[in-house]
Amino acid sequence: MKKGVIIAGGVFLIIILIFAGLLIFAKSYLTDERIKTLVIPKIEETLHRKVSIGDLKVSLFSGINLEDIHVSDRGDKGTFIKGKSLVLKYRILPLLSKKLVIERITLVSPEINIKKDKEGRFNFEDLRGGTQKAAKKEKPSSSGFSLLAENIKIEDASFNLTDETGGIPNVKAAASADISISSTPSGKVSATGSVDIKNIFISYGELKPEIKGTLKFSDKDISMKMNVKVSDTSLEITGDVKDYMGAPSISLSLGSEKIDLDTLLASLKKMPEGHSKGSKKGNAGKTPPSLPEMSGTINLKNISYGGMNIGPVRVDYIVHKNKGSLKGSVSTEGGKIEIDVSGKNLTSSP
Fold first, then answer.
1. Coil, strand, or helix at residue 334?
2. Residue 196 banded pLDDT, cuts 50, 70, 90
3. Stretch 303-310: mean pLDDT, rounded?
4. Is-contact 92 138, C-beta < 8 A?
5. Contact status, residue 333 vs residue 308, Cβ threshold 8 Å
6. What is the sign, positive or negative, of the torsion defined by CA atoms of 87, 90, 92, 94?
7. Alpha carbon 334 to chain centroid, angstroms
8. Total of domains in the chain
């Protein structure tokens, strides 16, 4: 019994010594200057943006905390991203080989500003090539630092979308996201995760919808459950998109307890006109693309229009190989109307 206690005490002491050694080594190796030298240039290289921070804290277990992070917009004009903190959770064992390997990135309370300029270019377009190249070749470099994390988490993010061309509405949104990233030996990177949309406010003339819901995604599929509120109308949208990067198949259902169609139509009439530069001329003579596979159900309990009450309305729809069908029923004050409509060549010009 006494021998067992001594062995257990010895093991415990060894664990304490290892922990203390790791703590001392981490503190001595992960100095503020070394972190700034390793991390900041790598973020700037990946994003093609200037990055600045307010303060820096290092913990053995919680990771590296970059506080008051600021990422400039393209050409150092304004702010692209600013956040309360960027937390980099690193692996402990690689530190013994003087390698800093990040396994989880958490961006806390970021404000992300997305802009479309007068030439129709978004301020994030130059990110795509750089981030894809970085994802393919990212390995612990000679500096011993790798920024390719297996998990990315975004907490309490806010988004602002502005369009100087006026073609799309201004958008303000708040959301959180949790993304897991994996890669194959060939270098292909895939991601799975979820997005919790707390609210999306869209302002487009008199039409000001508010959207809430959740999205789950993988490298092939997306599923969603959304609530869209416009004036006094609330719509529930559920569905999924299969193989969205290849041959997408969409299953989307829409439901509502009550729709005030008069108010919706009045708002639509006051919407500003978008600007599309030469879209009709550019597409002249071209074969229109095929519609994706689509199916779902529209279930509306009550529609008010012109003093009339219509509903319930239940319609199942299918789009397959540019052919479509609607089957269902509409109840009116005068009785029930059965619907059975089909069409061919849905993309052909009228």
1. coil
2. very high
3. 88
4. no
5. yes
6. negative
7. 46
8. 1
Q: Do the beta carbons of residue 42 and residue 145 sit within 8 Å?
A: yes
CA atoms within 13 A on the CB side of 257: 4
For the residues of 130-172, what is the DSSP string, one character each?
HHHHHHHH----TTSEE---SEEEEEEEEEEEEETTSSS-EEE
Q: Which residues contact 241 (CB under 8 A, 6 or more apart)?
A: 221, 222, 223, 248, 249, 250, 251
Q: What is the per-residue pLDDT for 278? A: 43
73 has a pLDDT exceeding 80: yes
Q: Which amino acid is at 165?
A: T
Q: Is there a domain that residue 247 lies in?
A: no
Establish if 306 belongs to a structural domain.
no
pTM over 0.90: no
Residue-averaged pLDDT of the chain: 80
Assess if residue 317 is contained within a domain.
no
Residue 209 lies in a domain: no
Reported confidence tier of residue 253, pLDDT bands at 50, 70, 90: very high
